[in-house]
Amino acid sequence: GDSVTQMEGPVTLSEEAFLTINCTYTATGYPSLFWYVQYPGEGLQLLLKATKADDKGSNKGFEATYRKETTSFHLEKGSVQVSDSAVYFCALSNAGNNRKLIWGLGTSLAVNP
Amino acid sequence: SAVISQKPSRDICQRGTSLTIQCQVDSQVTMMFWYRQQPGQSLTLIATANQGSEATYESGFVIDKFPISRPNLTFSTLTVSNMSPEDSSIYLCSVGQGVYNEQFFGPGTRLTVL
């Protein structure tokens, strides 16, 4: 069945460092891919999405490109801030799976000043 | 995007009792979902609740334990029945929008069972 694999955390960075959180997936067909973010004590927010190969989703300085050849959707940000400290979840939805979201395990990010 | 509220935001309950969690959306939506999130873990889908039909439960979740109501397009409830400490978790509702099922989440209900 469909699955999502994220790099394990926690990830600890200094402010203004470059961030990459790896996400790879296994799915039949052409899934849509999402990154969600959960700030401490809050619910999940959709951060960005991509619905077809080579699409780039972007929001709040974060980017991710849908790479079908490598089945990846890595999250990147050029310069992280303390306020980016959160847990990041990669997810996919697939028409063949009734569009249920399949979730990665989440990657915790801590940014130090 | 839809704005979603949940009540209660948190509760502490005794073993053997039941708690009903409410989810209210500010617009009409067809698809609503209920999730459970253990501390520090990913989300587990409990059930899909579409208006006008019975909820569809995922493997490991049953209607007797987690009855769901979906009386209209803006509201749903999840009841956690006959609770045990293992039910301590965050319960989240979400709504799906668009052909790709983007989901938008409520703030969650933090449940502690003693």
Counting helices, strands and paired strands, the structural category of chain A is mainly beta
Order of helices and strands of chain A: EEEEEEEEEEEE
Low-confidence stretches of chain B: none
**Portion in helices of chain A:** under 10%
Measured by residues with Cβ under 8 Å of the partner chain's Cβ, the largest interface is: A-B, 19 and 19 residues
- Helical stretch count of chain B? 0
Radius of gyration of chain B: 13 Å
Radius of gyration of chain A: 14 Å
Number of strands of chain A: 12
Question: Looking at the structure, what is the overall shape of chain A?
Answer: globular
Number of helices of chain A: 0
The main β sheet of chain B shows up as:
7 strands, mixed
Give the structural class of chain B: mainly beta
Distance between the termini of chain B: 36 Å
Q: Tell me, rounded to a whole number, the average pLDDT of chain B.
A: 93
The share of residues in helices of chain B is under 10%
Approximately how much beta-strand content do the residues of chain B carry? over 45%
Mean pLDDT of chain A: 93
Beta percentage of chain A is over 45%
